Amino acid sequence: MRAPTPSAAAELVSNDTSHKHESLKGREQRLRNVMQIYLAQQKQHLSVLTQALNSHHPKHQLQRQSQLLDEFEFRLSSAIKQRLSQETLRLSNKQHRLMALSPARQLDRQTNRLDQLQARLKQAMQKQLDSAKHQFAVTVGKLDTVSPLATLQRGYSITQDARGQVITNAQSVEVGSAITTKLDNGIIESQVTSIKDHS
Questions:
Q1: Which of 6, 57, 74, 191 is the most buried (most CB within 10 A)?
Q2: What is the pLDDT of residues 113-171, one digit of tens each?
C-alpha cells in the first residue's frame, strides 16, 4: 500500500510497528503462560515420583518391619505378664485355703507347679520372639536382594528416560533422547545417538 504523503507514510509505518509490537507482546505472554503451566505440571509430577520412591524405599520397609516386631514383642510380653499374674493370684488363693488346713505337702506341690508353669511360659515367650526375629531377618534379606542400591553395588547400572522411567527395552527410546544412568558412585547424563535392537 502506497501513502499519498510522507506524513501519511510515517503514520502507516507507526501503526504497523505498533500493531507488530502488540502482537509480539501477546505471543510473549501466551508463551509465558504455557511455560508456567508446563513447569507446574512437571513440579507436580516430580512430587508424585518422590513420594512414590520414598514409600517403596527399603529403609522405610525395614522401619515398618522393625515397628511390627516391637509391637508383637510388647503384646506377647503383656499377655505373659497377665497370665503369670492370674496364676499367681490363683495360687495365692489356694495357699490361703491350704494354710487354713495346714496341708504342707499340697502347698509344696502347688508351688512346684507354679514354678514349672512360669518356666514353660518363659520358654514359649522366647520361642515366639526367636521366630519373630528370624522372620524379620528373612524379610530384611529379601528386601536387600531387590534393593536398587544392592543392584548398583553389584556392578550393575540403572538407566532412566527423561520422565524418570526405567528403560528395559530399546524400543522405548528414540535417537536424540536424553537418558540418565545411575551407578554405585555417581550419575551419567547422556543422549542416545543410535539404537541397536538385538531381539
A1: 57
A2: 888 888 888 888 888 888 888 888 777 777 666 666 666 566 677 788 888 888 888 88
Structural contact between residues 195 and 188, judged by C-beta atoms closer than 8 angstroms:
no
In the chain, alpha helices (H): 6-55, 58-101, 104-146, 148-153
Residue 182 lies in a domain: yes
Range of the domain at 169: 156-192
How far apart, in whole angstroms, are the C-alpha atoms of residue 186 and residue 182? 6
Length of the chain: 199
Is residue 115 one of the residues assigned to a domain? no
Strand order in the sheet with 186-191: 158-160, 178-183, 186-191
Report the Cα–Cα distance between both ends of the chain, in Å, rounded: 64
Q: Is residue 160 part of a domain?
A: yes
The neighbouring-strand residues paired with 188 are: 181
Q: Is residue 184 part of a domain?
A: yes
- Total-model pTM: 0.32
Half-sphere exposure of 34 (CA within 13 A, CB side): 6
Task: Answer whether 165's CB lies under 8 Å from 180's CB.
Answer: no
